[in-house]
Design brief:
Layout: H1 2-20, H2 25-32, H3 37-41, H4 46-70, E1 73-79, H5 84-89, H6 93-97, H7 105-112, H8 117-124, H9 126-135, E2 137-139, E3 146-149, H10 157-166, H11 187-192, E4 201-205, H12 210-213, H13 216-219, E5 223-225, H14 232-237, H15 239-249, H16 260-274, E6 278-283, H17 285-291, H18 295-318, E7 326-331, E8 359-362, E9 370-371, E10 376-379, H19 383-390
Parallel strand pairs: 1-6, 1-7, 2-9, 3-10, 4-5, 4-6
Antiparallel strand pairs: 2-8, 7-8
């Protein structure tokens, strides 16, 4: 009989827990619907049980809410091969004035030129320089001694993304863009195996090399890349954009790429419907435009990415799951040449500037410091540990001295500022 009473009490508890969603008064209805004989036999009275159950229900719900509130979400976005020079100073006057790279110079000067670097960068990146600069952090303005560099010696895409997500360069094995499965564990697959993250990590990319870079098969996480993002739904959502760009360029990017608008549409739809804990979105139009020698399209791709980032942030701040619990992290895989206009098209070892990158972050745990002007040296290999820390986890670096970027989590006075120059 005691076992039966315990079972009855347990059933009543869970019924009362469900009733709590309708309000405390609904708990009384549960007792009215159950006979009292078992509890009377064991000298248990409803007057005693009801407040106990109500208290337990409230405590359980409060604990569940605390656990949900403690969950951190992260969206990572990379702009492939986009220079720090345009991030912090806006359009380059030499490339903007050269008809070889900007055929319609008058129109593009009207769109992107202004008297000061601060005005030019805000014209190019209004979201970055209003919302993120006002509520988040930006790193990499070398004009004020704030340096961010890659540590690998290759200075192009696959080695950069490997360093970014594995926390260490691997020049001995990652020295080409050939789509070979990455032998190194990355932070996304590491988190995907942890409790609370399983099947809640996803990646989208315009470039179809990312299933190899992130080793999709071993990582057991979905990586939607290249033409996989060209679905009927995404094409309908971006039809006007796609037709306009196809008319301008004569043909889309090579088959290994899809337009960023399709990748953005696919990623946004997935975020809205599935609410992953971590989403990585790799954009590629900036790098493709630069390799093709089109500075005008390079600027347009950056401006369109900024507009989408603003829309993405608005969604994250209005969605009940993501609101006030999500960090947006922005960066790039490599820089570009800058000594001559022709070098802007290229990036590889030996081209000055190709190892120079930038970083931005905005979120509930990131102090709103704006542009970081303190002299410091950061490296791309720190991003992997930073990603893990942003979602309340860890990613063991293969070298103990490689730490997360501490200023993203606390004020500079509390953080360890690294002042060695590259």
């Amino acid at each position: 009989m005691k076992i039966y009473a315990t079972l009855c009490f347990t059933v009543l508890f869970f019924h009362a827990l469900a009733a709590q969603k309708r309000g405390p008064a609904a708990v009384g209805e549960i007792f009215a619907a159950h006979p009292s004989t078992v509890f009377q036999q064991h000298r248990l009275h409803f007057a005693q049980i009801r407040p106990v159950l109500t208290t337990l229900c409230r405590q359980y719900r409060a604990q569940t809410q605390r656990e949900a509130a403690a969950q951190h979400y992260l969206v990572i976005v990379t702009l492939d091969g986009f220079r720090w020079q345009e991030i912090f100073a806006g359009a380059d006057s030499l490339l903007l004035s050269d008809p070889v790279y900007t055929p319609d110079t008058a129109i593009y000067k009207d769109c992107y030129w202004a008297a000061t670097p601060a005005q030019r960068r805000e014209r190019l990146f209004p979201f970055l320089w209003t919302t993120i600069a006002g509520q988040g952090q930006l790193y990499g303005n070398r004009l004020v001694g704030n340096y961010v560099n890659v540590a690998n010696k290759m200075w192009f895409s696959y080695p950069g993304y490997n360093e970014m997500f594995t926390g260490q360069p691997d020049d001995a094995r990652i020295f080409t863009n050939v789509k070979l499965a990455n032998p190194n564990e990355n932070v996304l697959e590491c988190l995907n195996r942890k409790q609370g993250f399983g099947n809640k990590v996803v990646a989208f990319s315009s470039w179809d090399a990312f299933p190899a870079i992130l080793n999709e098969k071993r990582a057991c996480m979905p990586v939607f890349s290249g033409n996989e993002n060209r679905t009927k739904k995404t094409q309908q959502a971006t039809l006007g954009y796609y037709q306009q760009r196809k008319a301008e360029r004569g043909k889309p990017w090579p088959q290994k790429e899809c337009f960023d608008a399709l990748t953005q549409a696919a990623a946004t739809e997935y975020l809205r419907n599935h609410h992953p804990r971590i989403a990585y979105i790799a954009l590629g139009d900036t790098d493709e435009a630069a390799h093709a020698g089109h500075y005008d399209r390079y600027l347009d791709a950056a401006r369109e990415a900024d507009q989408w980032l603003g829309e993405l942030w608005d969604f994250l701040q209005n969605d009940p799951t993501y609101r006030n619990r999500t960090t947006l992290l922005l960066t790039t895989d490599h820089g570009r040449g800058y000594e001559t206009p022709r070098q802007w098209r290229r990036h590889r070892a030996g081209i000055c500037g190709a190892d120079q990158i930038w970083l931005a972050a905005i979120g509930p745990n990131t102090p709103p410091l704006g542009e970081i002007k303190q002299p410091m040296q950061l490296h791309q290999q720190q991003i992997a540990s930073t990603i893990a820390q942003l979602v309340g986890s860890t990613f063991p670096a293969r070298q103990a001295e490689i730490r997360a970027i501490e200023t993203i989590f606390r004020k500079p006075a509390e953080a360890r500022l690294i002042t060695a120059k590259h």
